[in-house]
Sequence to fold (497 residues):
Amino acid sequence: MHLLRTSILSALLGLGAWQCAQAQQGLNNLWTGGFSSWAGPPYGGLDLNFLSGSLQLGQTSRAIGFRHSSANITDANGVLLFATNSAFIGDVNGDTLLNGTGINPSAYTSSYPNGFTIPQSALILPKPTSPGIYYLIHGTLDNQGSLTAQYLYLSVIDMSLNGGLGAVELKNQVLIDDALNAGKITAVRHANGRDWWVFCHKAFTNTYYRLLVTPNGVSVDGTQSIGIVRPADAGQVCFSPDGTKFAYYWGVEDLEILDFDRCTGLFSNPVFISIDDDNANSGVAFSPNSRYLYVSSASDCYQYDTEADDITASMVHIAQWDGFYSPAPPFATGFENAQLANDGNVYFGTGNSTFHLHVVHNPDVGGMGCNMVQHGVELPVWFSNSLANHPNYHLGPVDGSVCDSLDINVGVTEAVLEQALQVYPNPSAGVFTVRYAAQPEAGVLEVRDLGGKLVLRERLPAWSQVHAVHLREAPGMYHCTLRWGAQQGTTRMIIAP
Fold:
């Protein structure tokens, strides 16, 4: 995606684009997790917050708890609006959102009133062109004999209601009545930069249901039969950050990677990859550059290069469970659901309610250089694999495509970059923070002395707004340059004696 679409209107649209970028900044920065706050340590609520561009852990106490099912959304400032564990919807305080009970009616739901164990069973999307209105697309396990869902539901949340805490104004509207594979509800931005494609899979077939989300509502746009036949299954699905690839993995039925056209909503070129396992625990996540796919399967973790001529042969076995337990047997830290975070890392749940997550620190690097660290993130409370189900809210239009017809601009002009750039405190002792306008792609921070010598170079994650710097240099004046492609902003900072 281009940082700035070239057109004669660029200068006029720059401020509006910047405001749009800011409005999109929060949304998926927060992962709500933890459960049974009322029980006290080692239980409790846990927030994984990536708004600053790095992971910040925060403990909280709230009525809502999370297991495998977790979906939430924040405002532009990163403040939680509401969240769901698929059993009910909680407000910013963790209390039940007005009219937020009784979603997903079924016997399974009644058995799990404190949160589902079904990954990706709920997804939240902003209603296009309607600020404060959100669509919750969700499902449950309706047929426990066949392990399938019978319905895909729509609920609508209006944040202007109940004094700004929000309320559910439409609940459990049936979108699809058919035997569906439970969970694995995912979405990707339409090529026009405004609408959304939403997908789920029909059980015992190779058919995907395709839904379209527009300012007029949510509707079934059609179906597509492609790839392997999948019976009732679990596992995880995901789109690449750029929306051009799709991955579906369930350890019993193995891995599929498909190309995707954001304009037509159609898959193509399925690649089936057999992995030598039959594990129920499964996860998939793409790297920030959309090239590398990370696959987790209980005791093993793999990397695939989706741009290789032979994707199957590109497999690198990046990790095998090292025998670590958290805090002790039988709580093994295996590999389960995966998720790309706003800090540019890929995180894996452990398959148990442990005190740890696994992390890939350099997912854009092929092979072992990706730096997979087992149980590399220590958590203060029990965590039950509640990696939030977030689409890429920040994906813009496919520039120049036949569907790029709404004149939506993503990114900001260089003038706005300069205006938004701040360094504080300034002067400092070398420890300072850089604040900047959010951008839809990763950038680079460079610090040089007055002689032009490079003294620091660090990555700026896509859609971050602040970056902490620890500079151990002699007192004096330095130039800080932030660069995204051809766009850049520069300011000066002083290290005081």
Residues 10-23 form the longest helix (14 residues). The CA atoms of residues 479 and 492 lie 5 Å apart.
